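Sample entry (81 residues):
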Amino acid sequence: MSNRTKALEHERVHRRQDPLEALMDSCHRNGRKAILPKPPEKIYFDADRFRWYFKHRDGWNLQQWRDYIDAEMRLQNVPPA
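Predicted structure, serialized as tokens:
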């Protein structure tokens, strides 16, 4: 067999595996617990808080809130008669 043939045969045997699956398989085979790092705490920005508030408040979506706020602002801008 030439080196080229060995390389082609080698590629057929080994498949790329998800690193997390490989870690879990290795730990299972060796009888160890998998120590996975905790994900970093999510940072919430004001825009995220704003979207969450308007999404969960009274079941209205953001477009309904925009329409409501626009209507209220128009009422305030009406000149007195």
